[in-house]
Each structure stands twice: as structure tokens, then as C-alpha cells.
């Protein structure tokens, strides 16, 4: 495992709360001290922290008759204040300043907005300020919601070109069966050639968060494919971050592939943001999936769907409807339609803005 030089650390709700769902201030204090030690050792850290709804639930008891979405928005709005106040107090003990960043999926959809957010995060780090990122649960509902903060952490790590992503949960990592069963074994290392691990994982979700281990697995594999090393570890265990830094202890490590270009990292998470869809012929499919550097030319396109503008994300499928990848449109939808099948044209998607699954 490589040294942690620039990492995004996601702390899940089940790490920050007790079994009864109350804030675990002792655990937060311990983790904050570990993060401070990493920073003092030269590691740049962005925190992605769950817990706002759990904190809000402790602040105010609400009737079950209230709309569940409204109830969650109220708890998130109140709880985010308490969550950040707690972090500010804990990190001030180590003479470290913090900032709060609240985001929705919409913030990652537009490339310009995406880069503005990236510059903000890097600017904070340059001033030795820890950005603490969370989903803006007061406005994020249904289609605007992240799967959970594992997805947000994965997106953030790709955005800032972090070398490491640490997902802290309440188990040691991915097991060959339910972690509670004695026969289950911890899978310590995963690489690009590892077997499909999803069959080992049940789809159950945590008590106080939205996510489950399957989401963690999917986000970890995607991040690793972009060149980011990923660790899934138990945030309830003492000194876990120090142990990870020193390559000690028990956790699941995802070996990173070759580092991808920053734009491709953005595109890799664009599956839910695409505005249009292009169907390509077998010749174009073979070109895009080969080892040779290839852009998508109009001559290889046989159909275009959706309304989109230059710069929007397009999904690429083959003639059987199989998903092949994502890319940034070089033309709007009208111009793209006019160029279908034509020779000697500029690319519809340039290689530099193309991500193949």
C-alpha cells in the first residue's frame, strides 16, 4: 500500500453514533485526533462526514405523522449545525481550522461548477483548513440524492485528484459472508483481477445511514479503476487511521489501476448525469474498446437521442443497447443529428473527454 499523501476520509453514520443512535462524542474526538496526526505528518485530508440527521434526531423529536422527507430535512438542517460545531471544537484542540461544504448531485453535473468546487476545496487545503463535506439533505431529495456519502466521497476523491480514499464503517471491510458469522473471512486485498465480490454481500443498509456494503464495494472499485487506492476499514476501532498509514491492522485494500486523466475521473461518475445517448456501430465500438487512442467520429454513430448542448455528458451504447462509456459532447444535439454517418468530420466526443467502462 502507498503512503497517504492526499486522502479523502469518509466517516459513516454508524461510526459517529452509538448503538442507540445517539452521537458518539468519544469516537468523534478519537477520530479527530487521528486526522490531526495525519495532517501534522504532512497528509492533506478532506473529510466527508455523515451524521447530520442522527444529530438532528437527538435535538428534536418529531411526530411520525410528519412527511418522512420533511422530517429528514428538518433533522438534517438542525443536526448539521451540531455536527459542525462538534468538529470545530474538536479540531480547535489541535489548532486546526475547519470549513463546511454542503453539496448536491447537481454540483457535480456541470463541468464548470465542478471545477469551481474543486478550486474551492484545494484553496482551503492550501490554507491548512480541513474541508468537511456532506450532502445538503435539506434540498437533496429523490433524484438529486447521492446513493449515500460513499458515492459523495468517491466523487470528491476523483474531483481533487486524491491518491487515497478511506471509507470508515463499523466492520473491518469486505468479508466472504456476513461479518457476524465465524466462518466469514476478511478479504484483505482486491485488484482488477479479483473475483466478483458482490455475491458475498447482502443488500442490507446501516441503521442510521442510507448506504450498505454493496455501495461501498461499487464505489471502491470505481475509484480504484481511476488510480485511487481505497481502504474500507472499521472506524470504531482505536487508532485505525494510524494503522492504515503504517499498513497495519485489518482492513480491505483496493489496489489502484493506472491514474486516469482528471476529466476522465469526472466522466467516470457521470452515469446519472448524461443528457443524451449515442448509439454506435460495431466499427466504432471496436475502435473505442481497443488499446489504440480513438475519438468517436460521426461516421461511427447510427442514432442520437435526447436534447443536449456542447459540453454535456453523453452516454454511449452499442447496437444491442449495451452501455459502453460516457463522453463530453463536442456539438449540441441538433448539430450531432445532422452529422450522423458523415465522413471527414470533427469528433462528436474527443478522446480526452471519453471514458470507457
Automatic annotation (TrEMBL):
Its main location: cytoplasm. The keyword Hydrolase does not apply. It catalyses: L-glutamate + ATP = L-glutamyl 5-phosphate + ADP. Keywords: Amino-acid biosynthesis, ATP-binding, Cytoplasm, Kinase, Nucleotide-binding, Proline biosynthesis, Transferase. CDD domains: AAK_G5K_ProB (cd04242), PUA_G5K (cd21157). InterPro entries: AceGlu_kinase-like_sf, Asp/Glu/Uridylate_kinase, G5K_ProB, Glu/AcGlu_kinase, Glu_5kinase, Glu_5kinase/COase_Synthase, PUA, PUA-like_sf. Catalyzes the transfer of a phosphate group to glutamate to form L-glutamate 5-phosphate. Belongs to the glutamate 5-kinase family. This is Glutamate 5-kinase. It comes from Belliella kenyensis. The gene is proB.
Amino acid at each position: 500500500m502507498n503512503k497517504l499523501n492526499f486522502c479523502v476520509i469518509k466517516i459513516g453514520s454508524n461510526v459517529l453514533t452509538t448503538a442507540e443512535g445517539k452521537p458518539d462524542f468519544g469516537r468523534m474526538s478519537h477520530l479527530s485526533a487521528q486526522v490531526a496526526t495525519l495532517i501534522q505528518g504532512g497528509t492533506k485530508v478532506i473529510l466527508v462526514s455523515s451524521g447530520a440527521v442522527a444529530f438532528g434526531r437527538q435535538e428534536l423529536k418529531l411526530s411520525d405523522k410528519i412527511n418522512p422527507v420533511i422530517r429528514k430535512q428538518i433533522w438534517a438542517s438542525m443536526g448539521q449545525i451540531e455536527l459542525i460545531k462538534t468538529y470545530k471544537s474538536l479540531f480547535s484542540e489541535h489548532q486546526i481550522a475547519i470549513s463546511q461544504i454542503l453539496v448536491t448531485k447537481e454540483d457535480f453535473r456541470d463541468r464548470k461548477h465542478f471545477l469551481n468546487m474543486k478550486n474551492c476545496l484545494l484553496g482551503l487545503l492550501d490554507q491548512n483548513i480541513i474541508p468537511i463535506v456532506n450532502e445538503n439533505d435539506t434540498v437533496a431529495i429523490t433524484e438529486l440524492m447521492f446513493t449515500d456519502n460513499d458515492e459523495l466521497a468517491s466523487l470528491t476523491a476523483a474531483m481533487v485528484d486524491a491518491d487515497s480514499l478511506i471509507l470508515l464503517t463499523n466492520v473491518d471491510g469486505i468479508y466472504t459472508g456476513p461479518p457476524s458469522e465465524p466462518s466469514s473471512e476478511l478479504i484483505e486485498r482486491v485488484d482488477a483481477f479479483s473475483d466478483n465480490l458482490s455475491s458475498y454481500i447482502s443488500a442490507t443498509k446501516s441503521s442510521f445511514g442510507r448506504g450498505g456494503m454493496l455501495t461501498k464495494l461499487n464505489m471502491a472499485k470505481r475509484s480504484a479503476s481511476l488510480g485511487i487506492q481505497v481502504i474500507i476499514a472499521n472506524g470504531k476501532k482505536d487508532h485505525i487511521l494510524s494503522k492504515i498509514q503504517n499498513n497495519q491492522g485489518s482492513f480491505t485494500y483496493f489496489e489502484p489501476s493506472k491514474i486516469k486523466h482528471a476529466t476522465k475521473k469526472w466522466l467516470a461518475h457521470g452515469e446519472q448525469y448524461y443528457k443524451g445517448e449515442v448509439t454506435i456501430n460495431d466499427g466504432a465500438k471496436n475502435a473505442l474498446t481497443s488499446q489504440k487512442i480513438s475519438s468517436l467520429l460521426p461516421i461511427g454513430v447510427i442514432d442520437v437521442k435526447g436534447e443536449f448542448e456542447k459540453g454535456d455528458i453523453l452516454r454511449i451504447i452499442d447496437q444491442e443497447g449495451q452501455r459502453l462509456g460516457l463522453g463530453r459532447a463536442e456539438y449540441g444535439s441538433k448539430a450531432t443529428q445532422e452529422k450522423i454517418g458523415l465522413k471527414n468530420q470533427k469528433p462528436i466526443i474527443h478522446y480526452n473527454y471519453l471514458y470507457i467502462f
